[in-house]
């Protein structure tokens, strides 16, 4: 097997390395300073010895495995061609904390104004963890083939300023990485200096990060810790181009970031900029499963006067948005948050389209919401539209719920008109057996009084046998007055 041959060659080379000084010009007389850690890590990968937690892998051999090892040919100088020579090893192993060269152009583009790298220390460097491991292995018996080598002490982490300084010009790319985004979010808790540095690195890319699966979390955290000037700068960036904020709001990740932006707005100028930017896409936002939450967040976070543009648009397009699954919820929220003239205008627009909305799967909920408000003008307008059509509405799945609501909320005179229209039905038994109209008859019995209730009971009583057998009439038959 190829791996067995490689293992045998490595094991045969160990005595030569230890006694003959084959590590790239190391004298045999100073073999105590020889570092065999890389060779031990190679053997550990084969299963011969146990290696350290983080073996130094050369960049040139990282993707080659054992197939990239070089073996001397017959008659070739072993010392000059040995793959584990110290000069080759050092050339291939750059330090993890080598100083990052400062790129003035990148710093200027990311608005860096503070140099975070501390000045170089003049004191002699401390002993590295590698040297301690090497000494430990030498004391425990030569190359450490029979004993487990001591683990290196963990390298100290660079200071916070140094960590951010190494990200100059790369902050946007780091924010789009899962672990990098978490790191930057944690650094936002370290103080104003870190907030300023991160803001300078990502503010120009706010629109792209808000729709990123990971970057949107950083933007949400940044909005919660930035100051008023930085928040205004973000608002100006997002509202500079038309429809940018609308497209972000329609995104599954961007909608969360925009909602956080709306929550953080404080001044009238910021609110006005955001509302004016969202207004052209109002209809698209309301009908979208992500965008409708942005509109609702505006209604929840801003005052009624600030939401005037939303109320006006909702009144104009009430029929269109009221017959849509997300739009009917937004329309009800608009009614709840509006006041005075805006509310009257919105309710009147819905009442004028009451007959069409009442027959819709979603619009009927808007009509029922308006009826429950008990606004005299609105209910009177609805009663005029429904008059003469109650039979038609009672025999439909969605509008039958609206007729039941009318029987519960309308004034007595309007209730009487509904019941009289039901009694004028030539064949009342059709309504009694209908899967939807039977609920209307039952509500009429519950909400009628006096002579009107007696007239309805007398009209139903001749059909008692039908009520006993029909599956849709059991609720009506259960009424105590009909059992007598």
UniProtKB/TrEMBL annotation:
<feature type="compositionally biased region" description="Basic residues">
    <location>
        <begin position="131"/>
        <end position="140"/>
    </location>
</feature>
<dbReference type="GO" id="GO:0003729">
    <property type="term" value="F:mRNA binding"/>
</dbReference>
<comment type="function">
    <text>Sequence-specific RNA-binding protein that regulates translation and mRNA stability by binding the 3'-UTR of target mRNAs.</text>
</comment>
<dbReference type="InterPro" id="IPR033133">
    <property type="entry name" value="PUM-HD"/>
</dbReference>
<feature type="domain" description="PUM-HD">
    <location>
        <begin position="145"/>
        <end position="484"/>
    </location>
</feature>
<feature type="region of interest" description="Disordered">
    <location>
        <begin position="116"/>
        <end position="159"/>
    </location>
</feature>
<protein>
    <recommendedName>
        <fullName>PUM-HD domain-containing protein</fullName>
    </recommendedName>
</protein>
<feature type="compositionally biased region" description="Pro residues">
    <location>
        <begin position="117"/>
        <end position="127"/>
    </location>
</feature>
<dbReference type="InterPro" id="IPR033712">
    <property type="entry name" value="Pumilio_RNA-bd"/>
</dbReference>
<keyword id="KW-0677">Repeat</keyword>
<keyword id="KW-0810">Translation regulation</keyword>
<dbReference type="InterPro" id="IPR011989">
    <property type="entry name" value="ARM-like"/>
</dbReference>
<dbReference type="InterPro" id="IPR016024">
    <property type="entry name" value="ARM-type_fold"/>
</dbReference>
<feature type="repeat" description="Pumilio">
    <location>
        <begin position="277"/>
        <end position="312"/>
    </location>
</feature>
<dbReference type="GO" id="GO:0006417">
    <property type="term" value="P:regulation of translation"/>
</dbReference>
<feature type="repeat" description="Pumilio">
    <location>
        <begin position="385"/>
        <end position="421"/>
    </location>
</feature>
<dbReference type="Pfam" id="PF00806">
    <property type="entry name" value="PUF"/>
</dbReference>
<dbReference type="GO" id="GO:0005737">
    <property type="term" value="C:cytoplasm"/>
</dbReference>
<dbReference type="InterPro" id="IPR001313">
    <property type="entry name" value="Pumilio_RNA-bd_rpt"/>
</dbReference>
<feature type="repeat" description="Pumilio">
    <location>
        <begin position="201"/>
        <end position="237"/>
    </location>
</feature>
<feature type="repeat" description="Pumilio">
    <location>
        <begin position="349"/>
        <end position="384"/>
    </location>
</feature>
